[in-house]
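Before surveying the methods themselves, let us examine one representative protein, pairing a chain with its fold in token form.
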Amino acid sequence: MGIVVVPTYGSDPATVNAANLDAKVSGLATEFNGGIDNDNIDPAAAIAATKLSLATIAQAIAMSSKTFQFAKGADVASASSIALGTDGNFFDITGTTTIQTITAKQAGCIVALHFDGALTLTDDTGNLELNGANVTISAEDNVILVCDGTNWHMAAHYSGATVGTTQTGQVSFVIDGGGDVIATGVAGDIRFPYAATITGVYGFADQSGSVVVDLWKDTYANYPPIDADSICDAGTPLTLSAAVKGTDTTLTSWTTSITAGDTIRFNVDSCATITRFTYVIEYTRTLS
């Protein structure tokens, strides 16, 4: 590095104090266009925040026996659509309202969410990609999400619920006719990753009409389920008759037990007028 000539800025002060020294250094920084090497900086030096901007770092950072100390952002109230602040990477989510969308951040952004109350994170309705199923959140649960610039992908879900606790959840399946009346026959399948007991079923149509949807269940090894595997053959499948919604929480003569890994197939027995139908299965399970 060459010789640096320190310019003179007015009369040199007789007393060296912080204000006078800062004025000299600021002037030097303006006049000197060379580079500053690591060996030019005293290890004990403290750099004022006003003199250093780290808004964007465009190179890899090698950490040696150190940790990044992230900040906790302000609490965020649960809502259908929420926005996380720029004041941290860890947020408390308050309330019990179902969340469908979280405002996207830069691709690669990682956030940790701690939930104060029970709620549901909805998969693929907004921009939450939750591995193919809605996520039932209990109070004290923690979720880690990674943003790709548009959607948030769930990397982990840690449940704060106590082992042995009975937890209620639900899974939704949408049958869409693409603008036409829903066709009869197989509409699709889902897989239950854990043992559960069905406690109720609910149906929601886009308009008043009639529909009957049967559920067929079998093990993953025996996939696909067939009509003989109906869990409501001895009873009555969920039925709407000139209505926009329907429910059955009695489930008379239904087979309501589900083994971990079972697949459930949705079969439309009949349909009139309705072009879009949402089938909701409510269940309980014991945490293990």
Observations:
- The first strand starts at residue 76 and ends at 77.
- The chain is about 5% helix and 40% strand.
- The two ends are 66 Å apart (CA to CA).
